[in-house]
C-alpha cells in the first residue's frame, strides 16, 4: 500500500486537499508522483510526513518552521507535545503508520502500552474510535487492502476480549442483557465494547456474537 490519493491524505490527516496542493507549491516536503492521466498519488513516507506536519501545525508550529526541520527534529517536537489531546492524536498517527507499513507487532505494542497506562475503556474511546474513524474512508474507497483491515480489526478484537475476560465490577445491578448482531452483520467491535462496558458496570451479559440467524 504505497499509493494514496490526495483525497486519502485529506481523510487521514484532516488537511484539505486545497491546502495540501498549496504546501506542494510552497514547500519541499511533498513530491507526489503522477499517473499517466496526471492524477497525483503519494507514498507511505509522504503520508507519514503530512500526518506529522498536520499534528505540529495544529499545536502551534508554523508550516515554514516545520519545513526547515529534519526528520529527527520533527519527531522530537512531536514527542515533546504535552497537551493530552496532542498525545492521543500522536498515538493514533502511530497506529496509522504501523498499519500502512504492515508492522502489526508494533501496532499491538502501541495498543498494549496505552491499555497498560489508561485501561481498556479509555483506549477504545480515546485511541481506537478516532483511529477507526480516520481509516474508515480508506476502506470505503477500497484504498486499504483487505489484509490490513482484517489484521488491525483482529488485534483490536483480541484486546477487547482480553479486557472482557479480565474486567470485574463491585456493582451488581441484577440485570441481564443479550447481545448479538443480526444475520449478515459481521463487524462486532462496537458490540464487544458494549459487552465490556456492561460487564464493568455489573450487568450480566449473554453474548451470541455476529451474524446470528
Q: Could you walk me through the main structural features you see in this protein, from its secondary elements to its overall organization?
A:
By secondary structure, the chain is mainly alpha-helical. It folds into three domains: 81 residues, Multidrug-efflux Transporter Regulator, Chain: A, Domain 2, CATH 1.10.1660.10; 85 residues, Methyltransferase, Methionine Synthase (B12-binding Domains), Chain A, domain 1 (Orthogonal Bundle); 45 residues, Rossmann fold. It has ten helices and four strands; from the N terminus they run ααββαααααααβαβ. The chain has a two-stranded antiparallel sheet. A two-stranded parallel sheet has the order 3-4. A hairpin with a 5-residue loop joins strand 1 and strand 2. The longest helix is centred in the middle third of the chain and has 21 residues. The chain is elongated. The mean pLDDT is 89.
Distinctive features:
elongated; Multidrug-efflux Transporter Regulator, Chain: A, Domain 2; 3 domains; 213 residues; single chain; Rossmann fold; two-stranded parallel ribbon; Methyltransferase, Methionine Synthase (B12-binding Domains), Chain A, domain 1; mainly alpha; two-stranded antiparallel sheet
Order of helices and strands: HHEEHHHHHHHEHE
Helix count from the secondary structure assignment: 10
Provide the low-confidence segments as ranges: none
Quick one: CATH class of the largest domain? Answer: Mainly Alpha
Q: Which structural class best describes the helix and strand composition?
A: mainly alpha
CATH topology of the largest domain: Methyltransferase, Methionine Synthase (B12-binding Domains), Chain A, domain 1
End-to-end distance: 36 Å
Oligomeric nature of the chains: single chain
Radius of gyration: 20 Å
Shape: elongated
Average pLDDT, rounded to a whole number, is 89
* Main pleated-sheet profile: 2 strands, antiparallel
CATH superfamily of the largest domain: Methionine synthase domain
Count the beta strands.
Answer: 4
Strand content: 5-15%
Count of spatially separate domains: 3
Q: Helical amount among residues, as a percent range? A: 55-70%
